[in-house]
Design brief:
Length: 200
């Protein structure tokens, strides 16, 4: 498995350093039980009023028809590399509270927390996860019968990271690009907006 740990400025958990969104996957199935553990990690994410608005559609690569159907819900550029993943997942969130039907402003946030926990659980097991905004929501609604009040949000490719040599030239360039992030002073403020927090 290719390893590209993040060049962090401060100490963090190694699983967080090792997480990155590879385009290169080995086309092989996951061991039995792996997906259940990933969804169990998602299950225990925090959520507003414990609403747990997240839902996931999943297709493992050894379910050939289902895998092909889910692959068709990704935009074409993502299909080209995601076809090698061990599993594909589509995330969906419930937009309203079950307790009173009012809009849940935290629904996408809570889905993100669940997806984040799933991702770090995957990394802890030697797997890679690549989240995708490039999905076709109307096709997902049609193929899977998504009801009103629910929104398809992202796709996930899950599997074993491969070497960049398996990719097209363009994707290989993106795969090998330097890993960069904005420094904390650009987004961690104290006192007033855009005033870097004094934490040391």
């Amino acid at each position: 498995m290719t390893s590209r740990p993040a060049p962090t400025d401060h100490p963090i958990l190694d699983h967080l350093r090792q997480r990155w969104s590879t385009f290169a996957f080995e086309p092989r199935p996951l061991p039995p039980g792996e997906l259940r553990s990933l969804f169990e990690a998602a299950r225990w994410a925090a959520s507003s009023f414990n609403e747990q608005p997240w839902h996931f559609l999943v297709a493992a690569r050894d379910q050939e028809d289902e895998f092909a159907r889910m692959l068709s819900c990704l935009v074409e550029v993502n299909q080209a590399w995601a076809q090698n993943a061990s599993a594909l997942v589509l995330s969906v969130t419930r937009l309203g509270f079950t307790r009173d039907g009012k809009p849940n402003a935290m629904a996408r946030h809570d889905l993100g927390l669940a997806t984040g926990q799933l991702t770090i659980e995957a990394v802890s097991r030697g797997l890679a996860v690549h989240p995708m905004g490039g999905i076709v929501p109307d096709r997902i609604r049609e193929l899977y019968g998504i009801p009103e009040g629910f929104e398809p949000v992202t796709g996930l490719a899950i599997g074993f990271a491969a070497t960049a040599e398996s990719l097209s030239e363009e994707l290989r360039r993106r795969e090998m690009a330097e890993r960069v992030r904005r420094p904390q002073r650009d987004f961690v403020f104290g006192g007033s907006w855009e005033q870097p927090a004094e934490l040391d």
